[in-house]
Design goal:
Length: 131
């Protein structure tokens, strides 16, 4: 038996472990980066911790809106926000002369976003038609 295609429709049940695991996995590095940067540069460390807070708030907001928002759309939104936050942090660290975040790190959230889009699109295309 094949597993069901991922939910693309609002109102379908979400798995709490899958959602909060995804959120924690996507944002943990931002928290760690903030903790590492804070003693060396308060602005960059504070920005990383603020980005972590914003991403966490977005994740909690998405969870509370799960009856109107599909899991696929919520993960896509989280990955877009993570890509933007990563770009901001890389730019900020570069401007402040902090070599901790190399520019190639931008590839990671962007690649995850593309992979998730293609994976969801492929799974939806292979799902049995309901008509």
């Amino acid at each position: 038996m094949t597993p069901p295609a991922p939910s693309r429709r609002p109102g379908e049940p979400w798995n709490a472990g899958a959602w909060f695991g995804t959120q924690a996995g996507c944002t943990a590095w931002v928290l760690l980066q903030g903790i590492v940067l804070l003693p060396r540069d308060a602005v960059a460390g504070g920005a990383a911790l603020g980005a972590f807070g914003a991403l966490t708030a977005l994740g909690i907001l998405s969870w509370t809106c799960r009856r109107r928002l599909s899991f696929f759309a919520a993960v896509t939104l989280l990955l877009v926000a993570l890509t933007i936050a990563t770009a901001f942090l890389v730019l900020l660290c570069d401007r402040r002369g902090i070599p901790d975040l190399p520019p190639w790190i931008l590839v990671i959230p962007a690649a995850a976003l593309v992979w998730f889009f293609l994976f969801g699109k492929g799974r939806a295309a292979n799902a049995p038609s309901s008509t």
